[in-house]
Amino acid sequence: MVIERSKKSALLAAMLTATALCASTVDALASTGGSVASGEPSATASTRSVATWFGPGFYGRQTACGQTLTPEVIGVAHRTLPCGSLVKLTYRGHTLIAPVIDRGPYRHGVTWDLTAGAAQALGVTGTARVHALLVGEVPNTPLLGSPPGSPASAATGGNAAG
Fold first, then answer.
1. In this structure, how many other beta carbons lie within 10 angstroms of the beta carbon of residue 62?
2. CB atoms near residue 86 (< 10 Å)
3. Which residue segments constitute the domains of the chain, with CATH numbers given?
4. With pLDDT > 90 as the criterion, what percentage of the chain qualifies?
5. Could you give the CA distance from residue 33 to residue 18 in angstroms, rounded to a whole number?
6. Mind giving me the DSSP string for 143-157?
7. Which residues does 116 contact at the CB level (< 8 Å), separation at least 6?
8. Contact 99, 29 (CB under 8 A)
């Protein structure tokens, strides 16, 4: 889906005012027609929770929300948040807004599973305590979280051009 320049600019401005975003996440959300929900976020306070990351054994497979997982995908898995929920994650000075693209984690005491792309952007290499805040939502699409020109975008025939 190609978005008009004015709509893309407005979308990017709204997202950047919420927090600094990973550039690939901004382009991926813009290319899928995503928009940040207006009004106050559902969660009013940042919560500290445990995050791990997943990926290598799942590359090439579809997530519970319909995305094809690749190393470049930026997203998180959560047991109950709807697909497309945007979560602001902070770890050791790094901040990222990532969409919920999968279900999980299923390990006791862990709240978030980060994709390899999200873990890399945050600097997480194993298990970490992160601050998390629900900040909005975007429509769930097969390209949600996929950087433009990524293998997932090519595999699904998506137009990731901005």
1. 15
2. 26
3. 39-142 (2.40.40.10)
4. 57
5. 18
6. TTTPPTT-HHHHHTT
7. 53, 54, 55, 56, 71, 73
8. yes
CA torsion angle 69 75 79 85 (round to 10):
-130
pLDDT for residue 40 is more than 50: no
Please say whether the beta carbons of 64 and 81 come within 8 A.
Answer: no
Distance CA 80, CA 75 (A): 15
**pTM exceeding 0.90:** no
Alpha-helical regions (H) of 19-134: 23-31, 116-122
Distance CA 119, CA 69 (A): 14
Tokens of 157: 């025939």
At 87, is the secondary structure helix, strand, or coil?
Answer: strand
Tokens representing residue 106 in the block = 């299923």
Coil/strand/helix, residue 13: helix
pLDDT for 53-88, tens place per residue?
998 889 999 999 999 999 999 999 999 999 999 999
